[in-house]
Amino acid sequence: MNPLFGNGAKCVFDDFGPAAGEPVILIHGHPFNRSMWAPQAAALAAAGFRVIVPDLRGYGDNPATEEKTPLASFADDLAGLLRDLDIEQAVVGGVSMGGQIAMELRLRHPGLVRALVLSDTSPVPETAEGAEFRRETAERLLAEGMGPYAEEVIDKMLAPYNVTGQPEAAARVSAMMRATDPLGAAAALRGRAERPDYRPVLAALPEEVPCLVLVGADDVYTPVAEAEALCALVPHARLRVIERAGHLPGVERPQEFNRALLEFLGDL
């Protein structure tokens, strides 16, 4: 299914597991696509959950439509997708930028969020320096394409020892980055440069909305200390540190990641 929203954006997605299962939507990060969640989708579907994995606007098979994509637009796209599928509430999970979109979804469409799963992400607003860097990177991607960027960040997306020790995972991550449309990636970077402060959203999260925070032990983008600070905003949140992983523990250590995710979902 490819629902068409009022803003002209199509939402390309996969739908795994039984239709009557507890819905879980997993949101990929930048600059990836829905295939990054393949290990999680398989494990959750086998456990009886319904798993929705979309390509964000401008990523994967979802075409880029504009020069700047705010996180609010991504969240509205996903809210429209859930409603199109007649899903009243879902567990909403995301990694990195996907985690920020999950928090934006809770901000803009709170009733849709049954629980939050936040992996290797940050709720703090962008700094002036960070915003400038994202805008500069957007221009660089448009000028150079994704190849040089993918080569530059691979050992930050994955822990360096996993780049060499897990060549298949490294190749998969690199291929996703290189396949991304620079137009879509640049639009998201410009939008993300203007992201708001999600700490009030987390601080106001009620106990009836459970929250799982995951982080790779060797993540350099969002270190464990930042995950601990995020978790401290939500008194009832759980923190799971995935050893021997960097920024993408769901790719680097899928079994450990899936175990933590299934334990959390099993307690809902």
Q: Can you give me a brief rundown of this structure?
A:
This protein is α/β, with parallel strands linked by helices and 268 residues long. Helices cover 46% and strands 15% of the residues. It has a single domain, classed as Alpha/Beta hydrolase fold, catalytic domain (Rossmann fold).
Give a verbal description of the structure.
With 268 residues, the chain is an alpha/beta fold. It has a single domain, classed as 3-Layer(aba) Sandwich (Rossmann fold). It is 46% helix and 15% strand. It has a seven-stranded mixed β-sheet, sandwiched between helices. β4 (90-95), α3 (97-108) and β5 form a beta-alpha-beta unit. α1 (38-46) crosses α12, α2 packs across α3 and α4 runs antiparallel to α8 (182-192).
Q: Spell the H/E element sequence.
A: EEHEHEHEHHHHHHEHEHH
Helicity range: 40-55%
Shape: globular
Radius of gyration: 17 Å
Q: How many separate domains make up the residues?
A: 1
Classified by CATH, the class is Alpha Beta
**Total strand segments:** 7
Output mean pLDDT: 95
Poorly predicted regions are: 4-8
Give the termini separation: 28 Å
Task: Estimate the strand proportion.
Answer: 5-15%
Count of separate DSSP helical elements: 12
Which secondary-structure class do the elements indicate? alpha/beta
Fourth-tier CATH superfamily name: Alpha/Beta hydrolase fold, catalytic domain
CATH architecture: 3-Layer(aba) Sandwich
Biggest sheet strand order reads: 1-3-2-4-5-6-7
Give the CATH topology: Rossmann fold
Largest beta sheet, briefly?
7 strands, mixed
